[in-house]
Amino acid sequence: MTVVLFGGMAVLMAIGAPISISIGLPSAVSLVLVMGLEDGAATSAQRMFNGVNSFALLAIPFFILAGGIMNNGGIATRLINLAKVLVGRTPAPLAQTNVLANMLFGAISGSAIAAAAAVGTTMAPMQAREGYDKGFTAATNVASAPSGMLIPPSNLMIIYALASGGTSVGALFLAGYVPGILWGVACMAVVWWYARKHPELRAPTRAGLAELGRVFVQALPSLTLVLVVIGGIVGGFFTPTEGSVVAVVYSLLLALLYRAISLRDLPRILFSAARTSSVVVFLIGVSSIMSFVMSFTRMPQLIAEGLFGWTDSKVVVLLVMMVVLLIIGIPLDATPAVLIFTPIFLPVAVQYGIDPVQFGIMLTFNLCIAIISPPSAPVLFVGAQVAGVRIEPVIRHLMPFFLALVAVLFLVTFVPALSLWLPGLFGLL
Fold it and tell me: What is the biggest distance separating any 2 CA atoms in the chain, rounded to whole angstroms?
């Protein structure tokens, strides 16, 4: 079963089959080989149904819909204006604005690609007029966009909560704040280092208090969305699923208030959200078959026994996981990577005394780095496209960002308090 499962996945991915087919077909064939055609097919269907038959899973399509409304609702422009006045006269202020705007917009939309597209579309022309190198502009946008996948609400954390068998979504959301902010700070540090070599990149003027107050008032309704959704979930006023519905209603009212979308735009936004959601939900369904196959073959236990026999060092085990996730996460999208590696590595991590919440943040951070790593990095392609530049110069400018983010990854991995402090403070651990 193991050979058929992973061999089949490798072959199908190599020939360009969709990820969902590459996961689901070998998983189902593995069960058929052991149980026979009738029982194997029936078990596969049952596992798919059970995998998606979850009230908590409804949060994903609703958060995707909320993100789609925000992406079309004029929210990005207001957050960019706020970020611009907040960074003031810091070195390379427009690049710093890009980083901060991605943190703000990504935290609201929960999507790195949406943040890179929405913020980059606005910031790239502004930076080009100020003489910024297009490769550096794109690299800054690409490197900072995934911070929103760590700063809640995050669909990836909801998927991890389901794949891990019930880790608290509220605890994961709170745990993502400090690592997500550290991601943004690392990107800002790289921008500052770059600006030292390019002293011409300076802000011409500093915004006054009146300007700061004006743009803050304009952006406040958008920022309040995060407080309402996360505060309601952590405070126990509603579940993550109910919070996702609140996010949809709030963002829709806000977009209509801003007059950025009309009722005629809703069918297009709904269709786009449904198409994206269907891909994610189908992935979860076929991954449920794979999880059953892994459990049936005792694969996590065998991996844990192999690691215990090789080393009893928690540090070594964490390093092995980091390297595997960084390498294998590159050809995979973040969602299937979470669904594949959570049932494999989480039981091992728990045996070494690693909290499931900390492991979830470590896993998410690894995959956030992977999705901006060439050759198959969707955020990299989007960032290069909106900046109007080829991939090669972007990769060259991305290298310092990689080094800074890997350094932060080590901190997040080996300093559990960075992830667990806030959930513990609110009594969620």
Answer: 73
CA angle (289 as vertex; 53, 176 as ends), nearest 5 = 65
Of the candidates 246, 252, 231, 230, the one whose C-alpha atom is nearest the C-alpha of residue 68 is 252
Cβ–Cβ < 8 Å for 420, 429: yes
Phi and psi at residue 146, in whole multiples of 5°?
-70, -5
The parent domain of residue 28 ranges over 1-53
Per-residue pLDDT averaged across 17-26, rounded?
86
- Check whether 73 has a pLDDT greater than 70: no
Q: What is the pLDDT of residue 181?
A: 93
* Rounded mean pLDDT, 2-26: 85
Provide CB contacts within 8 A for 318, sequence distance 6+: 352, 354, 362, 413, 414
| Residues 174-200, mean pLDDT to the nearest whole number | 90
347 and 221 in a common domain = yes
Are residues 403 and 312 both part of a single domain? yes
Shared domain check, 94 and 6: no
Specify the DSSP element, H or E, that contains 166: none
The dihedral through the CA atoms of 365, 360, 160, 290 has a sign that is: positive
Domain count, the chain: 2
Which pTM value belongs to this model? Answer: 0.82
Burial of 209 (0-12, 13-18, 19+ CB in 10 A): exposed
Same domain as 186, residue 61? yes
Q: Which residues contact 345 (CB under 8 A, 6 or more apart)?
A: 300, 303, 321, 325, 359, 363
* Phi, psi (deg, nearest 5) at residue 201: -85, 85
Percentage helix, strand, coil for the chain under 3-state DSSP, each rounded to 5:
80, 0, 20
